[in-house]
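Task: sequence design from structure.
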């Protein structure tokens, strides 16, 4: 793509220099004025960029329509999810042809001893419903009249007669919670505003616990709301005053305890309320220790109530220990699943007859079952699958008494599949595989694990999928996706939309770079703070490996990443513009140094353990300055760049990509090859509604295809 598509000049943001002093150094910023969201000149600039992007991509209108129709044709639009059992009901979601959002539903359990989820009598029917269906929420009705709609947390009360649900109609993740009486269908008078996420019921279905955020949008307070009262009367249960920590609240599957968790990036602390003895009040389980992360779950093992503590005090890849259901210092935690180097223990779920451990090893997810007997753990084993690449995880398992484990499984060529694993019989039953219409055959595609070698000799895994045999005929275009921050793992997954690339001869790969969690805690530690450069050099090594191994060529590699992965895209653009042929940066964190220098901005202080504090530490300031995408924009030729953002994003503010693009326009040798697309009614997750999301993805995919197929 080049500026040849344009009949008018690209937008140019005026320079309005502003300067600040840090560590005796003067930092001048020409485009910080774009942060003034209410300034008509700012909105005019963003709208001018949108107009330029539209003009530059008008020639792709037919291709966008074609891709949208492909996604739509491959998707079973009227469908229902596999029902999940809880408290005498089966709960599931419905989707309907022509509707954006769908519905939440339930039916009563017919046989208490039968854990086999019900299925429609006629799955070919236009509206496959289950007998006795009760619609809990009609999401399309809730979304009516709004340009944006998102359902946050929704929770049925333990009494099964009330539903608390949260909605956001702006995209700023500030939710409003309402309560619906499921016996009458009427809304109660209760209304909770500016809630962070959703709400949690207490065991008696009389109170809701919820979280609110401070001015920097850090979840800092837990409240208790008694039904029938106003929000002004709510009780403040807990306030976290350390700006590095955020809070959350939940109830255990066993219904015995409520937990308030407070955590920073590398430190955690839990409080619990014993619902069998509420007069004892909230108690701290184990006081926070800097660098000690832990989480708590309630289990019953050998007839004894215990807390399961997943923690890193015994080693970086975590251990699962037991402790009394009382305040317990770390010295009294007893190993149940000991720390094993290279096996990262991520979480544990407790049920009446078994425990489910989520772990990863050799870059792949694993699901581990610990069967419980009269004397404790009776057996310990993995649920096995045979594919070279896969992602496995437990699905919705809300019932403490369940004898089965609902799990999800996918590969890059295997659609998302839902299984029930019967712990008693050890039988694995496929309940549903996401349908792909139009005759999809997984054997038409191949997936592999490749290994690149980073600058420091570390081997970096790559997962790749493509049309079978295609790359053997010569290099193919490849979309190389990555994230690489917060210990978040980008595991192999299937995508219907991706087929529009694969079937056009374009491969898809994930670079599992340091900063993520794919290879254990050390993998994360080696890609954060003063080792962040490893994230960028790992990605560049992966791109070069795809070219050197014959899978692709630099000009035909499309780089894509979002949020912190957008920072990666900006760094790659500056450091190795010759390694890729085009870049898509979604809601990109490209002005990271400016953000981390301003403690008043959303999430900045809570991010210090990820990036460092450049305001307080000169070494961190210099290090971030060395890689920050916005700071390092240079007078060089850049690959074509598509930056995508949302005006109401509260996590990565729209101003970051706006400033980045403005500076690229003023500095790059090819300023016309940069596009900025800003959604004017969306947040960090982009547009809402599945058809809008398909259109949005079709826009990006069409632009990518154009980059690697244009002559």
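Answer:
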């Amino acid at each position: 793509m080049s500026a040849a598509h344009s009949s008018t000049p690209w937008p140019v943001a005026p320079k309005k220099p502003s300067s600040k002093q840090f560590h005796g150094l003067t930092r001048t910023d020409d485009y910080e004025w774009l942060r003034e969201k209410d300034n008509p000149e700012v909105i005019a600039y963003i709208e001018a960029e949108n107009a330029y992007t539209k003009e530059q991509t008008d020639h792709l209108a037919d291709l966008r329509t074609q891709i949208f129709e492909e996604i739509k044709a491959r998707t079973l639009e009227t469908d229902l999810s596999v029902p999940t059992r809880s408290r005498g009901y089966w709960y599931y979601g419905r989707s309907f042809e022509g509707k954006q959002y769908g519905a939440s539903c339930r039916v009563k359990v017919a046989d208490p001893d039968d854990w086999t989820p019900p299925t429609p009598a006629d799955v070919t029917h236009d509206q496959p419903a289950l007998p006795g269906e009760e619609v809990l929420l009609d999401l399309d009705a809730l979304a009516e009249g709004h340009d944006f709609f998102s359902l946050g947390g929704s929770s049925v009360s333990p009494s099964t007669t009330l539903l608390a649900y949260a909605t956001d109609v702006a995209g700023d993740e500030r939710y409003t919670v309402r309560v619906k009486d499921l016996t009458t269908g009427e809304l109660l008078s209760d209304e909770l505003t500016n809630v962070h996420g959703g709400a949690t019921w207490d065991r008696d279905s009389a109170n809701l616990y919820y979280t609110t955020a401070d001015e920097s949008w850090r979840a800092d307070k837990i409240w208790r709301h008694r039904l029938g009262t106003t929000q002004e009367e709510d009780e403040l249960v807990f306030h976290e005053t350390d700006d590095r920590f955020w809070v959350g609240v939940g109830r255990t599957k066993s219904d015995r305890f409520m937990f308030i968790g407070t955590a920073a990036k590398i430190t955690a602390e839990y409080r619990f309320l014993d619902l069998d003895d509420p007069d004892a009040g909230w108690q701290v389980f184990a006081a926070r220790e800097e660098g000690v992360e832990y989480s708590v779950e309630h289990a019953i093992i050998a007839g004894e109530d215990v807390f399961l503590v997943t923690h890193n005090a015994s080693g970086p890849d975590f251990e699962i220990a037991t402790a009394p259901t009382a305040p317990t210092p770390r010295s009294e935690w007893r190993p149940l699943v000991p720390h094993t180097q290279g096996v990262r223990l991520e979480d544990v779920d407790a049920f009446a007859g078994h425990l489910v451990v989520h772990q990863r090893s050799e870059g792949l997810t694993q699901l581990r079952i610990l069967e419980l007997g009269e004397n404790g753990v009776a057996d310990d084993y993995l649920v096995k699958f045979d594919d070279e690449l896969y992602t496995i995880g437990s699905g919705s398992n809300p019932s403490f008494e369940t004898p089965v484990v609902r799990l999800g499984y996918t590969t890059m060529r295997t659609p998302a599949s839902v299984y029930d694993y019967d712990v008693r019989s050890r039988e694995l039953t496929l309940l549903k595989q996401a349908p792909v219409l139009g005759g999809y055959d997984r054997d038409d595609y191949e997936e592999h694990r490749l290994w690149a070698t980073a600058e420091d000799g570390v081997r970096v895994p790559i997962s790749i999928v493509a049309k079978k045999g295609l790359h053997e005929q010569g290099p193919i275009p490849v979309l190389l996706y990555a994230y690489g921050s917060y210990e978040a793992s980008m595991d192999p997954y299937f995508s219907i939309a991706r087929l529009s690339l694969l079937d056009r001869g374009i491969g898809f790969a994930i670079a599992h770079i340091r900063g993520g969690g794919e290879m254990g805690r050390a993998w994360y530690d080696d890609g954060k703070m003063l080792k962040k450069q490893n994230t960028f050099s790992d990605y560049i090594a992966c791109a070069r490996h795809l070219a050197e191994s014959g899978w692709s060529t630099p000009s035909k590699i499309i780089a894509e990443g979002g949020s912190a992965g957008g920072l990666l895209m900006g760094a790659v653009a500056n450091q190795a513009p010759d390694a890729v042929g085009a870049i898509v940066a979604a809601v990109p964190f490209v002005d990271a140094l400016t953000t981390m220098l301003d403690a008043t901005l959303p999430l900045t202080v809570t991010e210090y353990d990820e990036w460092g504090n450049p305001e307080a530490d000169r070494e961190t300031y210099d290090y971030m300055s060395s890689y920050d995408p916005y700071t390092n924009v240079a007078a060089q030729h850049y690959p074509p760049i598509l930056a995508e953002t949302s005006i109401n994003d509260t996590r990565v503010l729209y101003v970051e990509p706006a400033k980045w693009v403005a500076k690229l326009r003023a500095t790059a040798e090819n300023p016309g090859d940069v596009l900025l697309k800003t959604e004017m009614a969306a947040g960090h997750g982009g547009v809402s509604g599945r058809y809008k999301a398909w259109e949005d993805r079709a826009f990006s995919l069409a632009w990518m295809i154009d980059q690697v197929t244009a002559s």
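The chain has a mean pLDDT of 94.
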